[in-house]
Amino acid sequence: MNDKNIIITGLIIFFVFLTFPFWYNMGKASPVPEPKLTDKAKAAKECVEPKEYMKAEHMQILDIWRDGVVREANRVYISETGKKFNMSLSTGDDSCMGCHSNKADFCDKCHDYASVTPYCWDCHIEPPKEKK
Amino acid sequence: MNKKYMYSLLAVIVLILLPYVGVEAVGLQVLFGIIIPYLAVLIFIIGFIYRVMDWASSPVPFRIPSTCGQQKSLPWIKQNKIDNPFTAGGVIIRMILEILFFRSLFRNTRFGLNEGPKISYVWEKWLWLAALAFHYSFLTVLIRHLRFFLEPVPVCLQLLEKVDGFFQVGLPGLYMSGAVLLAAVTFLFLRRIYLPQMRYISLAADFFPLFLIISIAITGILMRYFTKVDVVGIKELAMGLASFHPTIPDGIGVLFYVHLFLVSILFVYFPFSKLMHMGGIFLSPTRNLPNNTRAKMHINPWNYPVKVHTYDEYEDEFREKMKEVGLPLEKE
Amino acid sequence: MIDSKERASKLGYLPPKTDWMDTPTVYKEGMYCYAAKPSRLEYMDWPYPKDWSCVDEDWQLPENWKEIVLKGMKERLEKYRTFKIFMDICVRCGACADKCHFFIGTGDPKNMPVLRAELIRSVYRNDFTKAGKILGRIAGARELTIDVLKEWWYYLFQCTECRRCSVFCPYGIDTAEITIIGRELLNLLGLNIDWIAAPVAFCYRTGNHMGIQPHAFVDMLDFFTDEIENATGVRCEQTFNKKGADLLFICPSGDVFGDPGTYTCMGYMILMHYLREVHGLDITWSTYASEGGNFGLFTSHETMKRLNAKMYAEAKRLGVKWILGGECGHMWRVINQYMVTMNGPADFLEEPVNPITGTKFENAKATKMVHITEFLSDLIKHKKLNLDPSRNDRLKVTFHDSCNPARGMGILEEPRYVIKNVCNHFYDMPRNTIREQTFCCGCGSGLNAGEDMELRMTGGMPRGNAVKYVNEKHGVNTLTCMCAIDRAVLPALMEYWAPEVDVSGISELVANALIIPGEKEKTLNLRGEPIWPKDVDPDEWYKRPDFPGR
Question: What transmembrane ranges does the database entry give (chain B) (predicted)?
Answer without folding.
Answer: 6-23, 30-53, 86-106, 126-146, 166-190, 202-226, 254-272
